[in-house]
Amino acid sequence: xxxxxxxxxxxxxxxxxxxxxxxxxxxxxxxxxxxxxxxxxxxxxxxxxxxxxxxxxxxxxxxxxxxxxxxxxxxxxxxxxxxxxxxxxxxxxxxxxxxxxxxxxx
Length: 106
What we know:
By secondary structure, the protein is mainly beta. The protein is elongated and about 50 Å long. The relative contact order is 0.18.
């Protein structure tokens, strides 16, 4: 899940990104490369109106085990395709660099 907000002179623009992904890890515990694929919905709003767009994508990343195996720090290079609607006019290609933490409860 991701969220962003930009505001200036009383106007606000926001984006909410919700995706469900499958991740495949390679190698042994410690530092591992991974692949991920998934899809979801991008919601964007401006001046009291909002639009929703379907999206699909995938990424390649690296995760590193921390805290005796109870979590991972992860970095990912990702490509997503946002599918057009009447509001956008044409599909969007989104390239991203993402970082995060996974809490593993064992």
